[in-house]
Design a protein that fits this description.
The longest helix has 19 residues. A hairpin with a 2-residue loop joins β6 and β7. The chain has 8 helices and 11 strands. α6 packs across α8. 29% of the residues are buried. The radius of gyration is 18 Å and the shape is globular. It is α/β, with parallel strands linked by helices.
């Protein structure tokens, strides 16, 4: 399994490469976002990405990846010295799968890398089949085998969580689910997340499905539902 480490600090790249290679991963390093974007990014299973770098920040690079259907599925873990909830939410809004603060604990890094890979590999290994395993609602079509989605004929770029949320809502219309329900059914059980993570992902999903976004209703005090 191939991991890309992007950080403008040579020592951090070297430490991460050494520790992840001892865990059996193949690791490639890049010392800037610009250098990383020259690589065949679709070959990587995970990207560890520093936020504060040179001319292009990690946030800017992540946006490029998430807006490209060829790389949108690749999970990203931000590594940064920045702290505070605003930076965490910004990273989640872009599509990050996790967020690790410096100084780094290699034990924590290894645990988070394995947790993210456990929940993302099934999406990356999805193969094309001829089964009619689709969820369709008006102009939205989800292919549950290929893990792809279209809205009014245009391909949608989703993170794994966004895809799972939309699939879950469409298959359970007009039913209200609490944040706890959504965490139970759509998130991996071995991952600790903030309550606000659900709200952030719902907001992101509403924006991505255009005119259908208004059908994801907030029931104050209860949760969310997709209202047909």
């Amino acid at each position: 399994m191939k991991i890309l480490v992007v950080d403008d600090e040579f020592d951090i790249c070297e430490i991460l490469q050494y520790n992840l290679e001892t865990e059996g991963f193949e690791v490639v390093t890049a010392y800037s976002a610009e250098e990383a974007l020259e690589l065949p990014l679709q070959d990587f299973s995970l990207i560890l990405l520093d936020v504060m770098m040179g001319e292009m920040s990690g946030f800017q690079m992540a946006r490029k990846l998430k807006n490209n259907p060829a790389t949108a599925h690749i999970p990203i873990i931000f590594i940064t010295a920045l702290d505070g909830e605003d930076n965490l939410v910004k990273g989640l809004n872009i599509g990050a799968d996790d967020y690790i603060s410096k100084p780094l604990s290699m034990k924590e890094v290894k645990a988070r890398v394995r947790a993210v890979l456990r929940r993302s590999v099934p999406l990356q290994q999805a193969v094309e089949t001829h089964d009619d395993n689709q969820v369709v609602y008006e102009g939205i079509t989800l292919d549950l085998n290929a893990k792809t989605a279209t809205c009014d004929g245009e391909e949608l770029v989703f993170t794994k969580l966004e895809f799972e949320l939309l699939s879950f809502f469409l298959q359970h219309p007009n039913k209200v689910f609490s944040r706890e329900d959504l965490l139970k059914y759509c998130w991996p059980q071995d991952v600790m997340v903030l309550d606000r993570t659900v709200d952030v992902n719902i907001t992101r999903l509403r924006k991505k499905i255009g005119r259908y976004g208004k059908q994801i209703k907030t029931r104050v005090g209860y949760g969310y539902c997709f209202e047909k």
